[in-house]
Amino acid sequence: MKKITLYFLVILSQTVFAHTQLTENQKLAATCKVWGYLKYYHPHVADGSKNWDEQLFAILPQVEKAQTKEEFSLVLENWINGLGQVNKIAPISTSKDIEYFDKNFDLSWINKDKLFSKSLSKKLKFVEENRFQGKQYYVQYDLNNGILLGFNNEVKYSNFKWSDRNFRLLALFRYWNYVEYFFPYKYQMDQKWDSALNEMLPKISEPESEIDFVLAMREIVTKLNDTHASFSSRKMFEYFGDKWMAATIKIIDEKAVVTGFQNDSLAKIDDFKVGDAITKIDGKTIAQIIKENKKYVEGSNPSAVLDKFYWVILMGKSKSAEIEFIRDGKESIKTLKRYSYQDLKVQFPKKEKWKLLDDNIGYVNLAELEIDDVPLVMEQFKNTKSIIFDTRNHPNDTNFAIAEYLNPEPKEFVKSLDADLSFPGRFIWRAEIEKCGKTNPDFYKGKVVILVNEKTISHGEYTAMCLQVTPNATIIGSQTAGADGANAPFEIIKGYQTSFTCYGVFYPNKKETQRIGIVPDIEVKQTIKGIQEGKDEVLDEAIRFINK
Hints:
The protein has 548 residues and is α+β, with helices and mostly antiparallel strands. The chain contains 20 helices and 25 strands. Strands 6, 7, 8, 9, 11 and 12 form a six-stranded antiparallel β-sheet that branches. The protein has a six-stranded mixed β-sheet with strand order 14-15-16-20-21-25, with helices on both faces.
């Protein structure tokens, strides 16, 4: 009987120890959250008076030594105590005129994290209640640059070495907290951001090589499900290659269909033809390439992801590639050249800004149209039965000028929100709903058609929203890129560039456009057959609709 009792006591003690023993991943994830929280909330940190990176480097060895919840919590408590006294202030009041957006806001982990003692949770909560109210040092808005969010005071570390674990963790911790507090669409991500941190920590903490570290950083960036969320490092060329095919493509039905040429002369040498449907590259099907690399390609929705796959498909390490393709219904195999970007000498042929189509229909290419052109084109097209505005590109800020000709009166079209830097994680709706147009009894009376597809992104989507409020407006095409709002580029650490959408854009009724995109009234997608026949099926459908 005594032996049985002793056996159960041993098992019980082992179970208790297993439950109190902390994993390295648990400790690092919690440290990342606390470090970022203090960076933007603590009065003696958010003001920039501490070298906050060095504070992280100093605390990491202590975190590593902590074995139990109690030891870990004590390490963090002592750290907070060493930052200086946080004075109790009067309750921070909010204006009744401010409307908050709280779908991203969640500090519940302060009390819910099982690694934290009650004493630590209480300290963190006290910091929230008496948070920094001055000008944030580590994050700011650049009002001279389109109200873009910036992280301009971060040390870039010209001596950054990927092999230094502290630097790798710093890069991850910085980025994770940028998104945690300042990405307006965090709530729409497929994967919870806490879960993404737990998944990516081992890959970044203990990578097998530099390229593994770089790929892990790119992978966590794509988890934002934001077409603006790019990541670049020269090291990526070692994995994906730095040589290009001379074609441009569109992925349709798991085929890379040639839509044009980056250089006509080089494409002719390789015998590319518009409509060639590439099915394999170097023995791998297009479907395999997509499956293997999907976690490295950004995009708000499936259409945007496939559009962004062009560089994975076209790039490679070798100077040649074997492709299998379909032309005129026949399958063929050939070897073609890849070129360095310098040797590719990409051609950007000028396209018509506008033209009058048959049946008295005006067509405007908003990628080419400049603001000074607007009075000319609107005068020329004032008596047409319809004007087609093509936003399958990146327009040149002409939307407001055009809208003055299309509307009888000012129209609301966008409601936006910005990060609240006084309460990081919370966002504020802008007081004013953006309007376009003016009082104009002589406004354009014909049909207005807006063409969209996956290349309609950011300002293109904003332009489509602006033109959409026009009387008799119809949107024709397919799902847009779903990345509405300004794109804020920044450097996480030396040599690692990234970006994400930095403020939220919604319809006036607060309906979302992020990830969803601008939904067409009439859906039309380009087909392989249409490309092979040289047709613009979206434009053709617009003309059919107008002539009904």
